[in-house]
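Q: Hi! First time asking for a complex rather than a single chain. Here are the components, and I think there are two in total. Is that enough to go on?
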Amino acid sequence: MYEETPVAAQRLIVERDVFGHNDALARKNRSFLTGRRIVALNLMSSPGSGKTTLLERTISQLGCGDCGGGEFVFCVIEGDQQTANDAVRIKQTGAPVVQVNTGDGCHLDAGMVARAIDALDPREGVFLMIENVGNLVCPAMFDLGETARVVIISVTEGEDKPLKYPNAFASADLCVITKTDLLPYLDLDLNVLRDNVRTVNPRIEIVETSSKSDDEAWHAWLRRAHERAVAR
Amino acid sequence: MYEETPVAAQRLIVERDVFGHNDALARKNRSFLTGRRIVALNLMSSPGSGKTTLLERTISQLGCGDCGGGEFVFCVIEGDQQTANDAVRIKQTGAPVVQVNTGDGCHLDAGMVARAIDALDPREGVFLMIENVGNLVCPAMFDLGETARVVIISVTEGEDKPLKYPNAFASADLCVITKTDLLPYLDLDLNVLRDNVRTVNPRIEIVETSSKSDDEAWHAWLRRAHERAVAR
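A: Yes, that's all I need. Here is the structure of the assembled complex.
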């Protein structure tokens, strides 16, 4: 049904400018982050998939803020249209956090992340967790300078979402399937969801988590990502 | 954290042009739809909130396609980035349906809806259900010429989403809370979710549904909307 129209064409040209400007800032971010051997993860999902809960759990299990007592050090950038609710939640874990409110904006961009990195000044070898705006569509279009992309989907969202909203899945290195403790109460076939993720992106890794089970596969992936960053 | 930058300013100016063009087309749609006493509902939500399932159930309970045998006649516009999966599902209910694939686009616009209306040619007094792209952020910015806006949120998405993503809730006439059959398995306080919806929009109506209970409050709202359209 969708056809190119004069409006769409006009928008395309402007988007190219916006993307070009964003990509230049993303390259600067990447250069800074690589130089400090920082693992920067761009976490993308719909609202309510459990990104903040996964972050809280991960920081409390594997890390601490800046205390040096955990296996890793985490710092966090929280993206939301409104409120500092998520930053307040993360702050309770002890991790340094910056909230970015995008207002009407539907995604983080590399400039917002650059300013948040300035404010956080993350030190060598830490994890920088970037929780993007809850939106399965737009964030995938914007490079932030991240080390890797993680797409998160909860089992309550249905098997077909990777096929209907493929960009986030196609550009991600890892897919985290959350809320698997709800599977007994849902009409969802986990194998079909996994197959649909792999149809869109055959090279993607997939791990499953829930707040009521261990997160070993997710932790193992984080350790490998950290090893790669330190070995650079 | 977020500050205006030259990029944001440039984008704002262009968006004003895009919105102006969209609003002109939306006014044409509204004029056509009002003339035919059609109730056009713009259904907005995150992916996986249960929009398509609610539509399937509503059409099978209250309507039929073009057969004239049900209480109402429904026709449907399905918006997704990719696939015709949802149109295939709706087609099985017997309702006329047009699938709009937006590609990289994150929302329906009035031009897409105008072309879909041309293709459907809905007759006097029907319901035109417009299932927007699964995205709680961008669709709220674009008037489609609809009679009313319905924002849908499932109980699995968490209580705080209306506060963090207020635009869709602020501009909606009705909020449908779905999947209430999962409440026993979730740490969610339905009263807090309702309060948060009303904080953003004190005038909004709220109904609750689940695939395992009746949908009387939703049906009653549809009947009132239809009465108002016919009385115009």
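A: The radius of gyration of chain B is 18 Å. Let me know if you'd like any chain examined more closely.
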